[in-house]
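Quick one: GTPase-activating protein gyp10 from Apiospora rasikravindrae, structure tokens please.
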Amino acid sequence: MSSHGEPDSDWNEKKVTGGTTSPASESMHTSASTAPSQSNSEDPRREERAAKAQAISEACKGGDIQTLGALAVTEGGFLSDDLRRHAWPILLGSSSSSDPAQHNGTIPAMQSASSSENEKSEKSEKGDGSDQAWQELPRHRDEDQVRLDVDRSFIYYPDPNDTSKADLDHKKTELSDLITETLRRYPYLCYFQGYHDICQVLLLVLAPAQRPSAMARLSALRIRDFMLPNLAPAVAQLRLIPDILGAADPALCAHLSQTEPFFALSGTLTMYAHDIQSYGAIARLFDVLLAREPVFGVYMFARIVLDRRAELFDTPANEPEMLHSILSKLPQPLQLEELIRDTASLFEAHPPESLRAWRSRISPASVLKTARDARASAAQSMRDGERYFQAQLRELQWAERKEQLARTAWSYAVAARKRARPLGQGPHPRRPRRRGRRVL
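--- reply ---
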């Protein structure tokens, strides 16, 4: 078993302790295998897996993000961490020139043309302290919270039964360094609780030299909405869920009409890394979340809700707290392959542009729109990410100003009404009593 723990799916790699090969990588090389030989006719599943591994390899060599996106949705995703170390940086548009073989000694490095261009672009951009060691950069305002969250990391994976305390402490140090470097090099980003859950997945999969660029680009170009000063853009994403439910299942949408979609915040905010406890499952899920547009994660939670239809109808609609409690926890076990396939179908049936909330609530500078096309997102620069961030920040500041003006206007209106009342009279003054004797 690897230090990550053995993945659940037999489509994923099963490494030996300290080993350097996986079924996927073996299929791409002519080196002898330690496993007993078996003909393809006797094992069609192995033949299918080998063919898919070859397709992933070829797509990585050509920087073919569209093909990688299609392969990520199919069963098993990218099959192994060996292949993920090539595919993920390409999907994120980060440099893949650092040889992942330094990490496990298996596959020669593959570099796409787009990632090479991005590398040159990022090096030419100033303002991120790229020529300076990150340890020498000014301290980020959120580093105290980072330390607290890192102390609580790696709860489920690597397998605590197979990981020594020294190894775990080393992982936590690596995680702290990765997060801190990202925040110091791009200090406009705001840390959020759950960010460390995302980072630890990339840390466990990618080679050390690949991590900083991949994490920076993921932060600025794909989860930027969560790294603003408040969660308003994240909440705006959740407003898509009722629209998706309304399009796919109006009756269920009506049943949940009294329940706010905040039940999906943890899942969407952390790319499900906070809620999924299996390393094999979360690595496989990241295959599709990195390959598809960011809004795919919102559709996935809507699909989870749709799949729990019978359970939800057993709870009265006028008990939103109970419905929230049910929906805030992912179903166990989570049928991941089926969920991914059904989410893709839901996305095709009801694309974002057909949703009213997409048009009225999602900012043009939101990652849901700026990364609507995975290929365009991979070609964006960190400078693009900062420009979009500043545009969103101005929108948030203007929204806060309008809210403040509205509160001020309301307080003035209330004060004016109070001043307009005659002295000693309450909100509903009585009619003056008639004086003199009553005439019958």
